[in-house]
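Why run this: before we spend reagent on co-expression, it is cheaper to look at a predicted model of the complex and decide which construct boundaries make sense. The entries below are exactly what would go into the expression plan.
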Amino acid sequence: AQTVTQSQPEMSVQEAETVTLSCTYDTSESNYYLFWYKQPPSRQMILVIRQEAYKQQNATENRFSVNFQKAAKSFSLKISDSQLGDTAMYFCAFRYNYGQNFVFGPGTRLSVLP
Amino acid sequence: DGGITQSPKYLFRKEGQNVTLSCEQNLNHDAMYWYRQDPGQGLRLIYYSQIVNDFQKGDIAEGYSVSREKKESFPLTVTSAQKNPTAFYLCASSASSTGRNQPQHFGDGTRLSIL
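The model came back. Tokens follow.
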């Protein structure tokens, strides 16, 4: 079975600073997709960023970027210039190239402090 | 606007009662999913469906049932066999034939509690 691990249950960061959330996964496949989702206190799941495994270039979306290390099976999320609205649970997710299912990590609770 | 609608937002179940959670999407997605989320926890897959009239069990299907009679709809029934149903339930959908890089889109969830 494929697994996704997020080793940091909780993190905090001062407003305007940078924070990195870690994610590792286990797979024998070479083609797959990775995602980061954000779940604020409203409980809505919001897509933050996605990465195709066949692309070497790291994905970037405004203040959010990833560090994708395929050989190490690592997919960390960097949030720059943290804002109070970034306070949320963050879930890393994995999807096979051929499958329908997504595998989610247990989440990291991020608190941005004023 | 396209999206996923879950209803009701809050639901209460009496002992021995079956309850049904609604999930409707107008994104023309083939695949639909149901997840359970317990407080402070991640998402666990209950059931998923790739096409109409077909669905598969996820990791925690016991005590739940689903149907997929229409592409747009994927209701979840929490049966009396589910002894600990109190949780937050999320419905999601994704495109299947147009590329695996397509993410899941989520509804706003239903919070189910035991009376």
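The radius of gyration of chain A is 14 Å. DSSP finds no helices and twelve strands in chain A. Bring this page to Monday's planning discussion.
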